[in-house]
Amino acid sequence: MGVGKTTIGELVAKKLYREFIDIDKEIEKEFNMPIPEIFKTFGEETFREKEKEIITAFSKKRLKVISVGGGAFGQEEIKNICMTNGIVFLLDLSWDCWKERLDLIIDNRPVLQGRTLEEIEELYYQRQKIYSTHNSRFNTDNIEAEEISDYIIDTLKLSWDIHEPHSGKILEI
Ligand SMILES: Nc1ncnc2c1ncn2[C@@H]1O[C@H](COP(=O)(O)OP(=O)(O)O)[C@@H](O)[C@H]1O
Ligand SMILES: O=C(O)C1=C[C@@H](OP(=O)(O)O)[C@@H](O)[C@H](O)C1
Ligand SMILES: [Mg+2]
């Protein structure tokens, strides 16, 4: 969380003339409240159920750039749905760089709240396992969002050129 999925996903979508869907924003629309309030009012389990429901629904729509929340791949079903229906890009950030960003993101990330820095670090390393499933990975340490979005687009273009099977899914603009 806080690696830049929403920011970079939006840039990628704009550059590819695709619709951008941020799953967290869709969840907020459904509950008509911000994520920290959803966690407080209904609990994380309800949030996770809604997250799965919305990702499942959007995964069936084609030609979109979708940003899922950083905890989504904790659910095996979501992981499978994303890998089957899309091309999954992992945005990575080292612990040293991520910890510098914590002050910026903590207010809107209830999963991080009420934890010590040591506990957050533990969560960071635990989470690495759930991120091992993806199609392509980018280390974003000290790289501007614009530049990362260009890398993603270059990688996609390369895969369109090389892998004919993908073309049916994403080339029909
Ligand atoms: N490449 C980057 N370098 C520095 N800051 C970034 C970068 N990408 C995003 N940010 C900042 O980090 C914060 C979290 O970004 P966000 O896109 O919401 O991440 P996510 O959707 O992964 O949680 C925002 O304040 C954003 O401006
Ligand atoms: O990692 C997580 O468990 C979460 C990440 C958040 O999204 P971002 O990854 O966009 O911050 C949001 O879905 C929620 O606060 C839970
Ligand atoms: Mg986000």
List the helices and strands and how they pair.
Elements: H1 5-16, E1 19-22, H2 23-31, H3 35-42, H4 44-59, E2 64-67, H5 76-85, E3 89-92, H6 95-105, H7 117-127, E4 136-139, H8 145-162, H9 164-170
Parallel strand pairs: 1-2, 3-4
Helix pairs in contact: 1-8, 2-4, 3-4, 4-5, 8-9
The structure holds adenosine-5'-diphosphate, shikimate-3-phosphate and magnesium ion.
Describe the overall structure.
- The chain is mainly α and 173 residues long.
- The protein has 9 helices and 4 strands.
- The protein has helices at residues 5-16, 23-31, 35-42, 44-59, 76-85, 95-105, 117-127, 145-162, 164-170; strands at residues 19-22, 64-67, 89-92, 136-139.
- The strands form 2 sheets. It has a two-stranded parallel sheet. Strands 3-4 form a two-stranded parallel sheet.
- It is globular and about 45 Å long.
- The model has no long low-confidence stretch (mean pLDDT 93).
- Magnesium ion is lined by residues 5-6, 22, 24, 67.
- Magnesium ion (MG) binds next to α1.
Short description:
The protein contains nine helices and four strands, in the order αβαααβαβααβαα. The chain has 173 residues and is mainly α.
